[in-house]
């Protein structure tokens, strides 16, 4: 009887001790964060037929006077710091800073790429608000990490919509729990070529001046995205449609002396895109097409005007596995007729390009990719009214995953 009474007296104390132990064992927010990243080391000039062929938007280590380079070197710090709050911060420690006096470039500066926070509005985080600098939800290939993408660089037509893919903004996203599980387990963690969770339905507003740039007018860009992945046999297919609209403001250093432009330097910037993605199981493909208008250089008027644009790409691949190694041969064709708003005088492009490559995942921390590019790039700006270069080259990339 005495033992029963003692246990009865001690029971609340034991419960309190257990509760305190649970609390003391609960992880602090910084213990829920994890570090990861990747780096891409390249050489672009094997079997090069034309050193004057370059691509400013793509890899600036193309062409004459270039050699070995880090295309990207990223460090990511992320975690679910609270059941309703996800934090993501990413730095690039190989970013370049252009020196305006001679147009040269100093490399290997640390630059902020992402800094955003997802606030879950319900217990399952199916509805959430993302605030900060993150990728603009426009274009499957834009949202896809460069660590997952097969071609060396993003296609010009879609990437010119949001250079560096990112901007400051606020986005409302909805992703059902079953779709998030499909994206996490089947697309991302299983080594496929997914792009992560940017919402089945997403709507938001952002500055519209590109990565790490402040807003320069009183008109925010607005964007909407709708896509839905589903299984068809063994395949996972995701069709989608996206659109954005806003005003883009040119800065003084983007405009050559003598070029005509609107007095307030503000231009309509709007696009719509459709696309489809199929994961490589074992055949995969990704295709997108966009139309719209943006500031662009008119060679006839020697002025920057609102110009129409259109273009797209199609990529096909095949996934093969031998022991613990994965091999993915791929091919891409792309076409673009339109301007690139962030380049000098909003250069107006006409380009056709083909790329054939092979990605080899030697082990989970090391990838080797080689690709052969056949390119014809033409553009017009005030100082170069007829840039017209054709060429072929073989590119090599080592990707280190950590």
Q: What features would you describe in this structure?
A:
The protein is mainly beta. 11% of the residues lie in helices and 54% in strands. It is built from four helices and 18 strands. The chain has helices at residues 2-25, 140-143, 156-159, 177-188; strands at residues 34-46, 69-82, 85-99, 104-120, 127-135, 166-174, 201-206, 221-227, 230-232, 235-249, 266-278, 283-298, 303-318, 320-322, 325-339, 348-363, 366-380, 387-401. The protein has a 16-stranded antiparallel β-barrel with strand order 1-2-3-4-5-6-7-8-10-11-12-13-15-16-17-18. 35% of the residues are buried.
Quick synopsis:
The chain has about 400 residues and is mainly beta.
The CATH topology is Porin
How many structural units, i.e. domains?
1
Largest sheet: 16 strands, antiparallel, barrel
Estimate the global geometry from the Cα principal axes. Answer: globular
The helicity comes to 10-25%
| CATH superfamily placement | Porin
N- to C-terminal separation? Answer: 62 Å
Q: Output the CATH class name.
A: Mainly Beta
Mean pLDDT: 91
Radius of gyration, taken over Cα atoms and rounded to an integer in Å: 24 Å
Per DSSP, the total helix count is: 4
Uncertain residue segments = 1-22
Strand content: over 45%
One letter per element, helices H and strands E, the order comes to HEEEEEHHEHEEEEEEEEEEEE
- Strand arrangement within the widest β-sheet reads 1-2-3-4-5-6-7-8-10-11-12-13-15-16-17-18
